[in-house]
Amino acid sequence: MRRRTGKLTCTAIATTAVLALGAALAGPLPQRAQAEPAAAAVTDYCQGQCSDILPPGQNGNATLADILANRAFGTHPEHSTDQLGPYNKLVAGYQTLTDDKLTDFFNDSSFGVPADQVAKVDKPRDDVTITRDKKTGVPHIQGTTREGTEFGAGYAAAQDRLWLMDLFRHVGRGELTSFAGGAESNQGLEQSFFGQAPYKEEDYQAQIDYILASQGERGRQALADAQAYVDGINAYRKQAKDGRYFPGEYVLTGHIDAITNAGEIEPFKLTDLIALASVVGALFGNGGGGEVESALSLLAAQQKYGLAEGTQVWESFRERDDPEAALTVHDGTSFPYAGKPANAKGTALPDPGSVTPEQLVYDKTGSARTGATQQVKAPKKLEALRGIYDDGVLPRDLFSRKHGMSNALLVSGKYTASGNPVAVFGPQTGYFAPQLLMLQEIQGPGISARGASFAGVGMYVQLGRGQDYAWSATTSAQDVTDTFAVELCSPDGSAPAKDSTYYRYRGSCLPMEKIERRNAWKPTVADSTAEGSYRMQVYRTKYGLVTHRATVDGKPVAYTLLRATYRHEADSIVGFQMLNDPGYVKDAKSFQSAAQHINYTFNWFYADSRQTAYYNSGLNMVRAADVDPSLPVKAEAAYEWRDFDPVVNTAAYTPPAQHPQSIDQDYYISWNNRQAKGYTAAGFGNGSVHRGNLLDDRVRALVKKGGVTRAALTRAMAEAAVADLRGEDVLPELLKVLRSAPITDAQAAKAVQQLESWQAAGAQRRETSAGSHTYGHPDAVRIMDAWWPLLVEAEFKPQLGGELYDALRANLTVDEAPSAGHGPTGSHAGSSFQYGWWSYVDKDLRAVLGEDVKGPLAKKYCGAGDLSACRDALLTSLKQAAAKPATEVYPGDANCSAGDQWCADSIIQRPLGGVTHDKAHWQNRPTYQQVVEFPNHR
Fold it and tell me: 3-state SS string over 610-658?
């Protein structure tokens, strides 16, 4: 790799207001807290050295009275926002952080609850107790039987996330609009998700049956656990409905009448967990795809430069196995997978101009056609909540944009002050209110863990700690999705049309299977979208889901997308069960064995008192020899996955030994960068500059110095979290080009001086002081934000030409600045600098400067390789950027005034329910995060 040098207020008033709404809207009376600790049946080997944080707060359920009080007085339900403050304060406090101050910014994640910290105890049945602590309200679930333990986990999940779970099960089933309203954003989101994971009801059950049939006793136990979990959800669901303390969103969306209590919260089913798991997998555990778009940019390159040179140009932008890329396994070990064959066979490039996307939506009626709105009659007290979902409950492109999130920093005990490994890690899942994840501790027969789980599938802790070990994950997104070109046919033998719904499979002409979902909606208080409906339709073949139509060599084809985890959305349940089982995970090797049972594409990290470890999970299918996985392939037996069975979508998979893995490397970093040498990146732009470098540079320096502590590693993470990747790792080359000759233009000279001062100060996007809401070097930050898209275009478009430049931009977005609307929650999403042209700019400028570049681009683009011309192009674009006022660079939105730089970057907990939260300082940081150092082991 390339190395560098380089508030709760007005409580009494709010309480009065709540009481005035009537007992029908109030919450349940808590049980008296017992003056005894939550049972601690196990030894906690972390001894107070494990911490975690998950903003905004544990409590994600709000009654209608709570929501009204929040909107009227700014009050929040207890424990709904108390983790946001400590999380936000780290920006100002990390520079002076010491181990003894970690609890100012993180929760103590020790097992159990001390007697004087018990806030509430629930006993939903005789064999389980749920104890909540005073500080955060996290549920500590203690069961005497396995079934009771899981029942308690489901009950606690419903207490904290009932509305969220209900919302996402409907997303998973492609029924969001009929549940939450027909807002345009809801329509877009449900369409994009249904297009990726459409199922019939029998498909959900078939996945349950597959687990029962294929995963032995652990599979049977997992489904028994899941059923008990569902039973716990339903027990609370019924109690909350009957007791009238259910989430207020059910009233606002028209499901329950606030006065009569008429209506229903539909019971949860085991198949709902499959739907929920499909959402988690689509968001965070998938990889590959996009082969049609890759083919289009390849064709554009070949048209521009000719077949051979065009292919060379395209491959250099593809950066499959870039030698300068930051790697998680950096000791030189190679794990070849999904590489480019010397002589590809079966590639099915479309004829130029023949590709058309498959139609998804049909039979639109009402507002689905017109976008009309209509206000419904509502009590005056609800007027403040009218239209809270008019913009949708979720971003419309939540599933259609690329996702690569989460980070991890681990240091071997050889380089720490204590001699024990240190880890700072967690998933970057966006910022929602309530959060998608929830904290819990589960203690019962065969289960002993505390950490975070996705709401609705929290039978086990998915990321967290056990008795003497901790684990976490980052999205790896290796290529487990392929595109096939399915030859179309006609059942009568005539020439098929491009829209034929019949295709060839091993010599037979078969009908495509149609999967449909009909959704209809009516206006509600929350969503004023007028009555409307439509039908979604996806065709499924044995080679996957039809996404495009085209011709290949003049013959009509359907391009289909086949994902290895399709029809296997919940198979990973056994792997998570193992991670929670202290009888299974005892050391690094057994941890890796557990991770092997997870089919999502994740990088898994582990730390105990003796070792660190890493393992890359996923269903890495064995492809036919000489198939290029980056491009569409012919749907013929010779090019199918090895041992492919289309009935259950299984194949031969690469053995565990071929997955990137390591034990006790000097350090590990991951920020969705490349895993290891030879392990091909699934997408574009994974080269010399990646946000992983922000971690790698810092942790490598810490290890070189030695004596690493939890605080030191946390400081490294926090500093990287406020760094501008472009300013830290690309601006030095830009300045070299600009300074290659005297700058005589006063405006340009001033801009360069501002950028140099910012870069010398660390190129951070950080307040001058806590609460100032003003960045240090704000003009330089503004200039960089305005300049980057202009400089990329000035550097590359003249040589590439408009068609190829646009095609490559379709493969990889140019920029992901914090103020852009690209993150998991749209704008104000925190996660930044994952996808962009930083590596391309870096390599090209270094080549123009005459510096050594390993894995260079095929051509020099800036100024056609002439340094003077390159400098002129950059100076011209810089002057244009410097002249742009802040009001243009940061145009404002519903949350921020135009020109407010800090606000444009700020993190906002996107409300999935009716409660809103304060803005937080931008941080490029995990949503849920652990800081761990185990001093002892079993």
Answer: CCEEEEECCCCECCCCCCCCCCCEECCHHHCCCCCECCCCECCECCHHH
Strand partners, 475: 602
For the cut 70, the answer to whether the pLDDT of residue 555 exceeds it is: yes
Across the range 774-790, mean pLDDT stands at 98
* pLDDT for position 9: 33
The two tokens of residue 399 are 């599933």
Scanning 834-929, the segments in alpha helix (DSSP H) are 838-848, 867-882, 886-889, 901-905
CB 50 within 8 A of CB 137: no
pTM value is: 0.95
CB 763 within 8 A of CB 727: yes
Between these two residues, 401 and 773, which has the higher pLDDT value? 773
Q: Give the C-alpha separation, 721 to 832, whole Å.
A: 9
For residues 430 and 830, the answer to whether their CB atoms sit within 8 Å is yes
Residues 260-290 pLDDT 10s: 999 999 999 999 999 999 988 877 778 899 9
**Is residue 38 very low, low, confident or very high in pLDDT (cuts 50, 70, 90)?**
low
Reply yes or no on whether the pLDDT at 123 is more than 50: yes
Compute and round to an integer the Cα radius of gyration of the chain: 27
Tokens of 790: 């202009």
Between CA 652 and CA 636 the distance in angstroms is: 17
Rounded average pLDDT over 310-316: 98
Q: Within 10 A of 187 (CB to CB), how many other CB atoms are there?
A: 26
Contact between 816 and 704 under an 8 Å Cβ cutoff? The reply is no
Sign of the Cα pseudo-torsion (101, 104, 109, 110, in order): positive
Give the Cα separation of 880 and 889 in Å (integer).
Answer: 12
CA–CA separation, 541 and 562 (whole Å): 9
Rounded to whole angstroms, what are the CA distances from 649 to 571, 574, 629, 640, 676?
13, 19, 18, 12, 28
> What band does 401 get if pLDDT is binned at 50, 70 and 90?
low
Alpha-carbon distance of 712 to 693, in angstroms, equals 17
CA end-to-end span of the chain: 38
450: closest CA among 101, 60, 110, 750?
110
Helix 146-172 with 270-284: angle, nearest 10 deg: 60
57, 433 contact by CB (below 8 A): no
683 pLDDT more than 50: yes
Enclosing H/E stretch for 579: helix 573-579
Which strands, in side-by-side order, build the sheet including 667-670?
107-108, 50-53, 929-932, 422-426, 407-411, 667-670
How many CA atoms lie within 13 Å of 194's alpha carbon, on the beta-carbon side?
28
CA distances from 276 to 165, 282, 597, 692, 716 (A): 8, 10, 19, 30, 35
Residue 374 pLDDT greater than 60, yes or no: yes
- CA–CA gap between residue 577 and residue 581 (Å, rounded): 6
Percent of the chain scoring above 90 in pLDDT: 91
User: What pLDDT, on the 0 to 100 scale, is given for residue 320?
Assistant: 96
For 50, the 3-state DSSP assignment is strand
How far is it, in rounded angstroms, from Cα 84 to Cα 86?
6
**CA 99 to each of CA 307, 371, 421, 422: distance values in angstroms, whole numbers, following the listed order:** 59, 55, 14, 12
pLDDT (tens digit per residue) in 429-483? 889 999 999 999 999 999 999 999 999 999 999 999 999 999 999 999 899 999 9
Q: What percent of the chain has pLDDT over 70?
A: 94
Residue 158, classified by CB atoms within 10 Å of its CB into exposed (0-12), middle (13-18) or buried (19+), is buried
pLDDT of 1: 57
Enter the tokens of residue 423: 């880890």
> pLDDT class for 402, splitting at 50, 70, 90?
low
